[in-house]
Amino acid sequence: MLQDSNILIVFGNGGHAEQMSRLIRLLQEKHNINFIAITEEGTKIRDIKIPILKHLNVIPLRPKHSDFSKIIKAWRLFSSFIVTFFVSFRLLLGSRISLMISTGPGIALPIAIVARIFRIRVIHIETWSRFYTKSFTGRFMYHVANDFWIQNKELMDLYPKCRYIGRL
Amino acid sequence: MNIFVTVGTTPFDQLIRSIDLHCRNINEIQFQIANAEYIPVNFPYFYFSDQIFCYYERADIIICHAGAGTVYKLLEMDKKIIVVPNLFRSDTHQQDLAKFVEINEYALVCWDIEKINDYIQQSNIFVPKKYQKDEFTGHKLLNKIIKELYGK
To answer: Could you report how far apart the first and last alpha carbons of chain A are, in Å?
Structure first.
C-alpha cells in the first residue's frame, strides 16, 4: 500500500526514457508528489535522474527482433499483455495514484487499461520520432488514454483528437 | 575533413562497413559502433562514449542513424549532418524522421548506404535550412493538471 500522492510514469529504453526524463525535469514545481515507475525490462532508470519511489520492470509487449512465426508472435504479444495487466493491477490497487504519464512503448497499453479501470487519468505523449505514420503504441493509446499529446504537428491529420504541445 | 559516424545505442553494421570500405579517400573518420559485430579495419572506432559531445564538436560532418534524440541534438548544435535511416531494423520508425529531415531540408538523407561517399561529396555544397522547433508547453499543462488532481 503506497502512502502519499503518487504519479505513475511509464516508459521504455532509449528515446522513451530520454523524453520522460526531459518532461519530468521540466516540472519545476515540486508538488510534493512521488513518482512510481513501470518500465520495460532493460531500461536504465538511474540515467534518467528522477527520484523514483518504487520501480517495476515488465517484459516488452513485443519482442525487438521478429524472426518468429506469426503464431508465436501473437502468442507472445497476448501473454506479455496479460502478465503486464495483472502485475499493474496488483500495483495500482489501493495505490494513491491519480495520474499516469506515458511516453510509450507498448507496455503502456495494458497499464493504461488498468489505470482507466481505477479511474486514473492517463496522459500519453506520442514519441517525437513519428510524423507521417502511426506507431503501434500510439494507434491504441489514442483510444485508451484520456489525453493524447503529440510533439509533431504533422500527426494532427492522423489523430484528430489530440493536443499539440511542441517538442521536448 | 573530419567525419564522425555515430549509430546510437543499437548496431548499424551495414553503414559502418560501407563507410569503412568505400570512403578510403577521406583522411579522418571515426566510428561509434555500439555493440557491433562488424569491426572496422580502416579507421579508428569505439563502442560507446560518455564524451560523445567532444566528437560532435570536432567533426566537420557527422553521419548518424535516424534516431530522433541524436538528430535533434545535432541540428540544434547547427552541425552539418548526413542522416542514414536504418532500414534493416524490424520496425520502420526511422523512416519517418528521415523523411521529416529531407522534406524540410535540414540535412542530407542517405537512403542507399552503398552511395554514402556521394553524399559526403554532396555535403560540401549542400546548404541546410536552419532547424527550429516550437517551444514545448506540455509541462505547463501538466503542472495545471497535477494541481487539479492532487490539490498540490
So the answer is: 33
